[in-house]
Amino acid sequence: MSYLLRLVVPDRPGILGAVATALGLAGIDIVSVDVLERGDGIAVDDVVVELPEDRVVDGIITAVMTVPGVQVESLRPFAGALDTHRELQLLESLGRAGRGTASLLADELPRVLHAGWAVVLSGSPDGVAVHAASEAAPDLSGVDLPWLPLTAPVLLPSEADWVPTLWREMAVEMMAAPFDGGAVVLLGRSGGPAFRRSELLRLAHLAGIAATVAQLPPV
């Protein structure tokens, strides 16, 4: 089974190699690594690992904690596609999407940004219209979204007052970015980790490209 491991590590040469060695000694394979942030002497990395059936989940944490200075921010099951070219594939697909850009974003952004679901919507605090949603997206009927309309990317933590009680209990972390014609792309994942500013910037960048593509004439 695959797991997404978020690590806060000292930003120095060899640290990821040491983590890989520790995991390897525990019989755990690294599938992919994404460096989310770097600065002030630390780095934040998302590491997808493959856990053999005869290993326990706690062994992942035990292994990486043997490396001095490494902190585990979160560990959760990962069901996304295991590849290292997610954003490039999305950009290639956008060029062929035509009027299906919103649906493509809803389907692909969870895979690209290690999220659980995505929704493309528009509206105001008085009402919401859903244009496209991924398979795992929650029902937004009756959910007040006081942060609409949206003019800039925003992080939407699970403890905000508007978040439904069930979502709070599930620790649903969210972020959103403007898309096209007043629409918004909303991403969420249950149980954390919280989205970081670097992930928000990636979402804003991809949504901006998609909005430009959506305005292009048909090929």
From TrEMBL:
Show the PROSITE patterns listed in the entry: ACT
Q: Which InterPro entries match?
A: ACT-like_dom_sf, ACT_dom
Among Pfam families, the record links this protein to: ACT
Report domain ACT positions.
4-80
Q: Give the protein's recorded name.
A: ACT domain-containing protein
Write the lineage as a comma-separated list: Bacteria, Bacillati, Actinomycetota, Actinomycetes, Geodermatophilales
